[in-house]
Amino acid sequence: QGPQSSSGMGDIVSGGLVAGLISLCANGFKVLGDSMSFWLPVGSKGITQIPLGFSTALLGAGYLIGIASGIAILVGVLIAWAGFVPYFTNIFAPDGGATAKFAMAVWKSKVRFIGAGAIGIAAIWTLITLIKPIIEGMKISVKSMNSSSSERELHRMDTDMSTKSVLGVFTVILIGLVFTFWEFVSAVPISAGLMWTLVIVGVLVALLIGFFVAAACGYMAGLIGTSASPISGIGILATIISSLVVYFIASENNLFATEAGVQFATAMAIFMTSVVIAIASISNDNLQDLKTGQLVGATPWRQQIALLLGSVAGAVAIAPVLNLLYQAYGFTGALPRAEMDPNAALSAPQATLMTTIAQGIFNSSMEWDYILIGVGVGVVAIIVNLILKSTTASLTLPPLAVGMGIYLPPTLEVPLIIGSFISYFVGRYLVARAKMRAGELAEYDVEQSNRRGVLFASGLIVGESLIGVIIAVIIVLSVTTGGGESPLELVGPDFESTAQWLGLLAFAFSGLYLVRRVVTHKFNKEEALAMKAEQEQQ
User: Fold this and answer.
1) Which residue of 64, 191, 278, 433 has the fewest C-beta atoms within 10 A of its own C-beta?
2) CA 179 remoteness from chain centre
3) What pTM, to 2 d.p., does this model score?
4) Which comes out higher in pLDDT, residue 357 or 425?
């Protein structure tokens, strides 16, 4: 265990240092670009792009999600940028032809809603397929909670928190939700009746949707991993449901008579959705932890207590970090200072989409036609995925990932795709090599090497994230003391083209270094034998 742990820490630290240095040079010093695009004419007036993104964190995430999700995202990118964008730009472009700015506007106003529709129907399908295991899991949990103390002691690894404890936690959460919604709604000058109506409805929507969301997302996260969780699609469905509920209440109380009323209704719908998203996110993390505990022989009810404490600690820590990022970079459509560059704002694509959906419902400007087209695309993706599962041993096309490929900015998706392909081809190489050098211990040789890749990829994610927070602190300190928005910048606008090519080289280096860390791993026979013995004992 000693050498193995040391090696693992070295891989994480190495990944963190590589990603941190690249992120510092890109987002701090500005000497490395974070993306570049090549725009190509299509047809008489249309245009599309070949996008490249250089995020090492997304490269690591792509390595972790695997080839199936990577291919599905690639299919979504091709549907958007080799299909819909060229088609719509040819139709709607002015006589002079489409420009890059026009193409991006078409993608944001039309194609992204197609992606949203695909994500939504994929999320619904996921919930339908999970109804049976969710019900069975609930029955097992209720049975465990109602077991006697002697039974709980006898079946230590099958015991959850007692019914009394669960009801106590639920009561505390319910009171917290009521207070939170009241605090949000009471800041607006509306009648007491309307205020409490919104509070009660908000809590009920959060509890009802959150119950099924937690079950679905948690089940997928525990079974496959958080990368398979339909949280993005569920966020869209929650936005639509919350917006329709608020729309009905607002219409009955004449809230739409003023612009302020429309803004409040939009904010209320998004606030309700944020509670559902928080429930989904926590269920993802908690089920991953509980799954890990089950594998190592932990006691569930003890884990659950620890997870409750962790959720409280996370709630305390997340708010100031988000506010720090907002003050440093701003979010798309919401900048803390008027002089800030909108192009440098954090994209927050899911939050932007949810806002757009809510505003579209309240302003009666929702592009439902494109949503329905996306639903059709999602249905086709679901059918193709079912055919692949029934006719092949390992090929799948996750429909949710296809929708994300259409919806997310392409420069964010390219690193994910590249990372997934690196993972696949490196894995094939490792299997072939292990058969030659490890014999009957080949699978443990592959596991040892794969472990290095997973840990290094995780380090890439951690390193870029930490540097992003550190740079945000520096920016906030600079602005509050009268400095500029880019206190670490070493170059001017004229260096942008050079920075893009340097960014491409740095990204290529990080990918090659990831491959090298994995393929140069030496086979440890003693560790392989120990792993084999442990598996045989289990």
Assistant:
1) 191
2) 28
3) 0.81
4) 425
